[in-house]
Design goal:
The chain is built from two helices and 20 strands. The longest helix is centred in the first third of the chain and has 9 residues. It is globular, with a radius of gyration of 22 Å.
């Protein structure tokens, strides 16, 4: 009986011992780990471990690199705030890594996913981006509801609602208010071809949307304000 039990324990698969966590391999400046359920806030250092449900926040001029149980890495840029939504290793082949960005920039270098049940996803501003193994950057500006994706290597899919855009190496995209802003030739303000997304991007959201579908430049003000009438597609929402 003793020999049999010993044999069973020795045959426990190696993956069962995997701790689905991330480890800081580089820390510069002030990087905080905010624990679940309003627990203590810890200062990260090289070797610090983060797990599912925790939150990582970098201060101004602070950066960090997290390496996860599968070898994937996240470079966390200054003034970034994100959740580790899900970290799981349900089998030797399967892995699930999901993150929700509240602010800032992440650069992901993802180890190849070896099964259809595996996923590596980053969510921000109503957009979810996932990969099968690649290198990409994702920025989120919550003040302007703007998500920017840039792919360095491999392929990234980005889903906003029921719509999916595919980006390959050297490509990228911009999403405003959760909606993809398709690339196209630039328009001159007032030529009748601008969408709400075009104008927001052009004026960096320093314009005011009026009820009559015109746009006012608040930097001028008064009766002399620049007013541009724009065609607004049905997919966009205007107050």
């Amino acid at each position: 009986m003793v020999l049999t039990l010993s044999f069973v324990f020795q045959c426990v698969p190696a993956w069962a011992k995997i701790s689905a966590t991330g480890t800081f391999i580089s820390v510069s400046g002030t990087v905080k780990i905010k624990q679940q359920n309003g627990g203590n806030t810890l200062l990260a250092k090289v070797g610090s471990v983060v797990k599912q449900g925790e939150r990582v926040v970098t201060d101004k001029d602070s950066t960090a690199v997290l390496q996860f149980f599968d070898g994937s890495q996240l470079t966390v840029k200054p003034q970034t705030d994100f959740w580790l939504s899900k970290l799981k290793a349900p089998s030797p082949q399967d892995k699930i890594l999901k993150f929700k960005m509240l602010l800032g920039s992440l650069l992901a270098q993802v180890t190849k996913l070896n099964s259809s049940n595996s996923s590596f996803e980053v969510e921000a501003g109503g957009v979810v981006c996932g990969v099968r193994g690649t290198k990409f950057g994702m920025d989120f500006d919550p003040d302007h509801h703007k998500v920017t994706v840039n792919v360095t290597d491999g392929t990234v899919w980005c889903a906003n609602g029921n719509h999916i855009q595919i980006f390959t190496a050297g490509q990228g995209g911009v999403f405003l208010n959760g909606n993809w802003l398709p690339p196209g030739p630039p328009h001159k303000p007032g030529d009748g071809n601008e969408s709400l997304g075009d104008l927001n991007n052009l004026f960096l959201n320093t314009i005011l949307v009026n009820h009559d579908n015109t746009f006012t430049d608040p930097s001028i003000g008064g009766d002399g304000s620049l007013r541009v009438t724009a065609y607004v597609p049905a997919r966009e929402n205007v107050p």
